[in-house]
Every structure is written in C-alpha cells, then in structure tokens.
C-alpha cells in the first residue's frame, strides 16, 4: 500500500510539472470581438464531417500532433506544394488520412464566410482537434488561440522527428523530451490511440517476425488477440488493410486504451512498451484505473502540443487557404 501511495505521489507531481506553460502567449478570448462564434463554427464543421465518416476523429487529432511536432503548431503540415516536398509529402506523413485535411479545409471555409481574413489555419486545426475529442466522448477543454500560420513546410524536416511504431521507451522519450514533454505527457498523448486505426504493415513484425525470428509472435500480445490479428492481417495482406488501434471502443475517446495495454491488446510496439517498461507502467496503470486522471493529464499535454513554436505576425501569416501560402515563397 505504501509503495502504491508513493508511486501515485510521483505521478501527481509529474502531472503538476507538466502544466507549466512552454509556448508563446496565447489567449482563449483572442477572437472574442473579431470572430465570437469561432468555436461553434469549427465544431459544426467537424460534427458534419464525423457524421460522414468516423475516421475524421483520429485523422484530425493525428494531423494536429504531426503538424506541431515539426515546426510548431503552425499548420505547415497542410501546405501542398507542386514540387511535392512539403511536410505532408514526407514518408512519415503519407499515412495521414485525407479526412483530417478535408475537415480543416472545410472548417476554414466556413470561418472565412463569417470572419474573413481573421483566423489562422493553425487555430482552426487546434479547435478542430478539441471538437473531435469532445464529440467522441473525450474531455472538453478550452483552446488558447492567437497562432499565425507558418511560412516553412519541408519534407526533409520531418524525418526522425516523429515517434515510430517500433520505438522503445528510450526512443520515445528522446522525441518528446526535446519539446519539453514529461513522461506523463508522453503516456497521456499516446492515449489518443484510443481512437483510430493502423495499417497491418506497421505491426506485422510483432506477428510474424518478432525479434527477427521468422514465424515468431511477440509474447506480450494477448494470445487470442494475436490470432485475431493474424486473421485480419495475413502475411500476404494488401498495403491498404488496417485494423482498429482499440479493438473494443475504436471511435470513443476513453481510457480503455490503457486497459488494453495492461491486458496485452496494445497494437504497436510503441504502445505496448508503455506497459512493459517499468518506468511508464505505473502511469499506464493509473490511467487505466482512473479515466478522469487520464483526461486531466491529456488536456495538459495537448495544450503543450498547441503551444509549440507558436508563430506571430513577425514570422507567420493568416492564410486565406490552408493548403497554400499567401506570400510567394
């Protein structure tokens, strides 16, 4: 009991540390006079898109994270260049679902109708992420606003700066630590895998070639789950076939992801390692037992994502269209 209490104290201390602001000055009422109905406009667009396809939920969340982790929360991941060497063209971003981009583009168009030339694509993306999380059962939280859109988007900047599906905890920590995230932030943000899907190729080695041994299956898999995955993802499976990251509530933002890790239902190596590594295991166990604790930690962590390298009028712009710069680059 004392050991458990000590672990809990450590986790709570790390959560408190995570709440320290690291970004530029933003404000929740930034558009109070210039676009007072902004959140409602964006959420309505997100809801409409979710009604068309539930893929919208993880697509928007993942787009927000992939965007912020490269040059900051500046919508640089939405830029499309004729040379096809923007961030979205990098190998790590090729798997980003088009529904995420489409959601932000649609929302921006609606915002432009009500408040032309006022709201950045970066802020629309941040709000769309919050809306997607709330509409899928996750926490409702206030989004600080005032970002400008970035003026740089290069595929070459992406390589090595996003977490990979086969990463162990040391590699994950290296990616997150350079942005000021704590271990609690890392685990909480990984909880976004409570929604969405993953292509079979991203975890095939765990099923058929564990540790380089042909035919070997990762023993940390729940055996029944491993057999189900082999049926869904046979050795000759096509590159477009995917399975749900959370096999039980794949379109609900909840804490079941962490219970899945405890029970051997983590799909990716980078998921399951959060439980198998003793450094992060207590956090996984805490979030599995307490959804409120997960939600609170997630809100802090996603706020830090949105505060990464925020652009201002000095080094950014308010794009008219999210996929292209206003100024000639």
Highlighted features:
329 residues; mainly alpha; globular; disulfide bond; metal ion binding; signal; secreted
Main β-sheet, in a few words?
2 strands, antiparallel
Structural class: mainly alpha
Distance between the termini: 61 Å
Shape: globular
Beta percentage is under 5%
Could you tell me the radius of gyration in angstroms?
Answer: 20 Å
- Mean of the pLDDT scores? 93
Contiguous helical run count: 13
Helical content (DSSP H or I, runs of 4+): 40-55%
Helix and strand run: HHHHHHHEHHEHHHH
Please mark out the parts with pLDDT under 50 across 5 or more consecutive residues, or reply none. 13-24
Count of beta strands: 2
The order of strands across the largest sheet is 1-2
Site (Transition state stabilizer): 62
Binding site for heme b: 193
Family: Belongs to the peroxidase family. Ascorbate peroxidase subfamily.
Binding site for substrate: 163
Lay out the secondary structure.
Blueprint: H1 2-18, H2 38-52, H3 56-71, H4 98-114, H5 121-135, H6 169-177, H7 183-190, E1 197-199, H8 204-208, H9 223-232, E2 242-244, H10 256-262, H11 269-276, H12 281-289, H13 291-305
Antiparallel strand pairs: 1-2
Can you describe this structure?
This protein has helices at residues 2-18, 38-52, 56-71, 98-114, 121-135, 169-177, 183-190, 204-208, 223-232, 256-262, 269-276, 281-289, 291-305; strands spanning 197-199, 242-244. By secondary structure, the protein is mostly helical. Helix 2 (38-52) packs antiparallel against helix 4 (98-114) and helix 2 (38-52) crosses helix 5 (121-135). The N and C termini lie far apart (61 Å). Mean pLDDT is 93; it is low at 13-24.
